[in-house]
Design a protein that fits this description.
Radius of gyration of chain B: 20 Å
Number of helices of chain B: 10
Strand content of chain B: 15-25%
CATH topology of chain A: Rossmann fold
Order of helices and strands of chain A: HEHEHEHHEEEHEHEHHEEHH
Distance between the termini of chain A: 36 Å
Structural class of chain A: alpha/beta
Order of helices and strands of chain B: HEHEHEHEHHEEHEEHEHEH
Helix content of chain A: 25-40%
CATH class of chain A: Alpha Beta
Number of domains of chain A: 1
Helix content of chain B: 25-40%
CATH class of the largest domain in chain B: Alpha Beta
CATH superfamily of the largest domain in chain B: Thiamin diphosphate (ThDP)-binding fold, Pyr/PP domains
Oligomer: heterodimer
Distance between the termini of chain B: 53 Å
Largest interface: A-B, 5 and 3 residues
Strand order of the largest sheet of chain A: 2-1-3-4-8-7-9-10
Number of helices of chain A: 11
Shape of chain A: globular
Strand content of chain A: 15-25%
Number of strands of chain A: 10
Number of domains of chain B: 2
C-alpha cells in the first residue's frame, strides 16, 4: 500500500475523489484500489472511455500519479512507447508502466494494439476494466458483453433476447500470446484484486489483468448493489476469477459454500429483465449452462 | 465493415462523431480508390483531440478537402433540420451509387441530439435499385470481380486517377444544392450551413422587419460548393458575413467565390457553443451601421 509521504494525496488515495463517476460506479472503485495497491511510482496510459472522461475533465484531474490519455484504440501502443523510451533512457526501473481502459478500448477497438504490445514483450501492466459494454457512449454492446444482455445495439424485444454472442475470452487470448501473467479478478473481491495487482507488478514482461466492474447505469441495478452484483457474478460461476502463468491456470477463486443459481445474479439487473418474462425459460437454461461449464472447466466448486 | 458490405454490392452506411470519422479516413480513401459507394454520416463535435461533446462544425475542411490521402472528393451534404437530414439520406445513397464513390452527410451535433417530427417522403424498393455487376460474390460461371486500389505502374495509376477526376467533374456539374433565403435585394449576405443557417433565418427575418436588407446563402452541398448564388448576390451586396461553429473553415470557399469584390466578415464558435438569433441579429445590425 502507498505510504504516507510529505505531499500526501487526499485521504491517502492516489485516485482522488471529486470526479464525476455515477453513484455506485464499480470502475472508479476498482481504479482507486488498483492505484493504491501499486503505489505512486507508476505511469498510467489511459484509453478513452468512462474512466478517462469522469476522472480528467479539464482543468481537473483525479490522478495523483503521472497520467496520459490519448486515443480510444491506441493505449497499449502509447504505453509501449513510454516503456521503450524509459528503456532507451536507462530508467526502466523508475516506474511501473500501466496501460488501462475499458472492455471496448482494450478487447475491441484497441485489441490489435494490445496484441502487438504483448507479443513484443513490453514490460507493461495492462488492465481492462470490464463493465461489459461501451458505457461512456451510451451502452452499446462490446466483445465482452455477456450472452443475452440487452444493450442499445443488442436490444431485447420481440425478435431477440439481447446480445446473441458469448463473452470473448480475452484473458485466454492474451495468455495464448505467451504473456507470463494473466489474471481475472473482480471489484467485489478486493483482497483478490489487490493481491493480483501486486503480484503482476512484481513480474517482468507483459502482464494482463481483467477486472469485473458492475455499471449501475448500463446494467440497470440499484447503485447500492455494485459489490453484491460483482460477488454474485463469481458465486454463480458466470465470472470465474483465475490466474494463468505462462499459459497454465495456476489458481482459481473457489465458490463457497456452493454455486448460486444464475437467476440470483440476473434478476436485479434491468439488462436481463426480459429473461424473466414468459417464453424466456430456455434462455435462462442456456445461461445456467454457461455457468455450469465454467464451474466444470475452472474447477470452481467440487461438491 | 462498410467497405466490405459495399464491395459485396449492398447499400451500406456508418455514422460517428468526429474522432471516429478521423479513424475512418484511411478506409474512406480506399473506398474512393476502389470505387465503392457508401454513406458516411458525421455529427460533428468540438475538437481537436477528444475535444468535447458539444456541437461543432469543425470537420468542414476534413470533409470537403479530402480527409484521407490521395486526390479525391466526396459529395458532402449538410442538412440544417432533421427533416432535411431524412430527405438527404436517400439522396446520399443515390449519389453514392451514381458515382460509385462514398458520400458524406455532415451535420453538427445538435441535429443528432434534437428531436422533431419528420415525414418519410420516400420508400425504397431494394429490388428496384440499379444492379452492381462489379460487386464481389460467387463467380461460378462468370468472370471474377476484383476490387482494389493498388496500381504500381505510375502511367496506369495516372490514367485511373484522371478517370476518377472525370467523375468528380460530373458531380461538380450536377450535384450542387443550395438554398437562398430572403436574398431579394440583399445587401448583407450571410453564408452559413447546418444549424447555424437555421438560427440565422430567424435573425434575418427580424433584421428585415427593422428595414435591414439581409439575406442568406445556405450551401447544402459543401462539396461541390455552390457558385451561382454568389455570382447573383455580389452586385447588390455590400458585405458578406460568414458564421460557422468553428474557427473559420467554410470562409475559405466563400473567399474563392467573392474574391475581393466585397468585404467578408467572420464570426466563429469553435468548441461546442451555438449562435443565438439575437447574437446574429446584433452582428447584422452592426454591419448595417458600418456599411
Amino acid at each position: 500500500m502507498y505510504q504516507i509521504g510529505v505531499s500526501q494525496p487526499y485521504n491517502n488515495n492516489l485516485f482522488a475523489p471529486g470526479h464525476t463517476a455515477c453513484a455506485g460506479c464499480g470502475q472508479s472503485l476498482a481504479a482507486r484500489l488498483v492505484l493504491n495497491a501499486l503505489g505512486p511510482n507508476v505511469i498510467v496510459a489511459n484509453a478513452t472511455g468512462c474512466l478517462e472522461v469522469f476522472s480528467s475533465n479539464f482543468p481537473q484531474s483525479s490522478w495523483e500519479v503521472p497520467w496520459i490519455h490519448s486515443l480510444f484504440e491506441n493505449t497499449p501502443a502509447v504505453a509501449s512507447g513510454i516503456e521503450a523510451a524509459l528503456k532507451a533512457l536507462g530508467r526502466e526501473d523508475e516506474a511501473i508502466v500501466v496501460a488501462q481502459g475499458g472492455d471496448g478500448g482494450f478487447a475491441d477497438i484497441g485489441f490489435g494494439a494490445l496484441s502487438g504490445a504483448i507479443e513484443r514483450g513490453h514490460n507493461i501492466l495492462f488492465i481492462v476494466y470490464d463493465n461489459e459494454a461501451y458505457m461512456n457512449t451510451g451502452v452499446q454492446r462490446s466483445g465482452l458483453t455477456p450472452f443475452d444482455a440487452s444493450t442499445t445495439t443488442s436490444p431485447a424485444g420481440g425478435c431477440s433476447f439481447g446480445n446473441p454472442t458469448d463473452k470473448k475470452p480475452v484473458a485466454q487470448i492474451v495468455a495464448a500470446h505467451g504473456a507470463p501473467y494473466v489474471a481475472v479478478t473482480s471489484v467485489g473481491y478486493y483482497r483478490d484484486l489487490e493481491r493480483k495487482v501486486q503480484k503482476a507488478a512484481g513480474i517482468k514482461g507483459p502482464k494482463f489483468l481483467q477486472i469485473h466492474v458492475p455499471c449501475p447505469l448500463g446494467w440497470g441495478h440499484d447503485t447500492s448493489l455494485t459489490i453484491k452484483i460483482a460477488r454474485l457474478a463469481v458465486q454463480t460461476g458466470l465470472y470465474p476469477l483465475f490466474e494463468m502463468e505462462n499459459g497454465e491456470i495456476t489458481s482459481v477463486v473457489k465458490i463457497t459454500p456452493k454455486p448460486r443459481p444464475v437467476e440470483d445474479y440476473l434478476k436485479p439487473q434491468a439488462r436481463f429483465r426480459h429473461l424473466f418474462k414468459p417464453g424466456a425459460e430456455e434462455e435462462l437454461k442456456k445461461i445456467q449452462a454457461i455457468a455450469d461449464e465454467n464451474i466444470r472447466r475452472y474447477k470452481l466448486y467440487e461438491g | 465493415m462498410v467497405l466490405g458490405a459495399a464491395a459485396a454490392g449492398v447499400r451500406a452506411m456508418t455514422s460517428s462523431s468526429s474522432p471516429g470519422i478521423s479513424l475512418m479516413q484511411e478506409g474512406i480513401s480506399y473506398m474512393v480508390g476502389c470505387q465503392l459507394p457508401a454513406v458516411i454520416v458525421n455529427f460533428m463535435r468540438g475538437g481537436p483531440g477528444l475535444g468535447g461533446i458539444g456541437p461543432a462544425q469543425s470537420d468542414y475542411l476534413q470533409a470537403t478537402k479530402g480527409g484521407g490521402h490521395g486526390d479525391y472528393n466526396l459529395v458532402v451534404l449538410a442538412p440544417s433540420t432533421i427533416q432535411e437530414l431524412v430527405d438527404l439520406m436517400k439522396e446520399a445513397f443515390d449519389i453514392a451509387d451514381r458515382y460509385r464513390n462514398p458520400v458524406m452527410v455532415l451535420a453538427d451535433g445538435i441535429i443528432a441530439q434534437m428531436m422533431e417530427a419528420v415525414e418519410f417522403k420516400y420508400e425504397v424498393d431494394p429490388a428496384a435499385l440499379p444492379p452492381k455487376p462489379w460487386a464481389v460474390g460467387g463467380a461460378k460461371g462468370r468472370p471474377k470481380n476484383v476490387i482494389k486500389s493498388l496500381d504500381l505502374v505510375p502511367e496506369n495509376l495516372e490514367k485511373y486517377n484522371w478517370m476518377l477526376q472525370e467523375k468528380f467533374k460530373r458531380a461538380r456539374a450536377n450535384e450542387v444544392r443550395y438554398e437562398e433565403y430572403m436574398m431579394e435585394e440583399a445587401e448583407i449576405v450571410l453564408v452559413c450551413f447546418g444549424t447555424v443557417a437555421r438560427v440565422a433565418k430567424k435573425s434575418i427575418e427580424e433584421a428585415r422587419k427593422q428595414g435591414v436588407k439581409a439575406g442568406l446563402i445556405r450551401p447544402i452541398t459543401l462539396w461541390p460548393f455552390p457558385e451561382e448564388p454568389f455570382l447573383k448576390a455580389i452586385p447588390k451586396s455590400k458585405k458578406f458575413l460568414v458564421l460557422e461553429m468553428n474557427a473559420g473553415q467554410m470562409i475559405e470557399d466563400v473567399k474563392l467565390q467573392v474574391c475581393h469584390a466585397r468585404p467578408i466578415e467572420f464570426k466563429g464558435k469553435p468548441g461546442g457553443t451555438v449562435f443565438t438569433p439575437s447574437e446574429i441579429l446584433e452582428l447584422i445590425l452592426s454591419l448595417e451601421e458600418s456599411k
